[in-house]
Amino acid sequence: MSTGAVPGPDGRLRCPWGLSTEDYTAYHDEEWGRPVHGDDALFERLCLEAFQSGLSWITILRRREGFRTAFAGFSIAAVARFTPDDAARLLADEGIIRNRAKIDATLANARVLAGWPAGGLDELIWSYAPERKGRPVPKTLADVPAVTDESTALSKELKKRGLRFIGPTTAYALMQACGLVDDHLDGCVARRA
Fold it and tell me: Where are the alpha helices (DSSP H) in 38-119?
């Protein structure tokens, strides 16, 4: 099987992973790699990438609405006010991934971020976006890294500021999902101009 962009049922070229399920195709075409801004929106992506750690992204994608309901729409201010009773509720919620360490990290991260100025998370994350100019367009999946110098630096800075469950690989997945980098393959219909 080719590791470059492949034609989908509509004949348009896409990254191979974007064709494995209808859920993936919609996510690939409409969301992944598109710029995301706003503290709450980035908090959601940060949390979901952390919950994905060790799992398939499709598992998270299919439970995203359950996560949004369980975590108050990922409002940083609301999640920061969650109590031990809320944590117990989350551990019993079958609509999300019930992992105590990931739930605890999400609540702790919200408490940290609640103390930041408005726009602080957005500004910090986007300050690690690499220059687009001169960055090679990936031709195959093998050309797409799992970790970069920027994701390693972002991870270190977030940890230094008290955030948990955000290693360099998770940070790079966040950068890809939120459009800090465009890792759609050469020829992919979703690649930005």
Answer: 39-52, 57-61, 64-70, 76-80, 84-91, 100-114
150 belongs to the catalytic site: no
CB 14 within 8 A of CB 28: yes
157 catalytic, yes or no? no
Tens-place pLDDT, residues 24-74: 999 999 999 999 999 999 999 999 999 999 999 999 999 999 999 999 999
Distance CA 131, CA 121 (A): 19
> Does the annotation mark 57 as catalytic?
yes
- Pairwise CA distance, residues 74 & 59, whole Å: 18
- Give the residues across from 14 on adjacent strands: 6
Active-site residue, selected from the candidate residues 32, 44, 49, 150 = 49
pTM of the full predicted structure? 0.95
| Residue 7, strand partner residues | 13
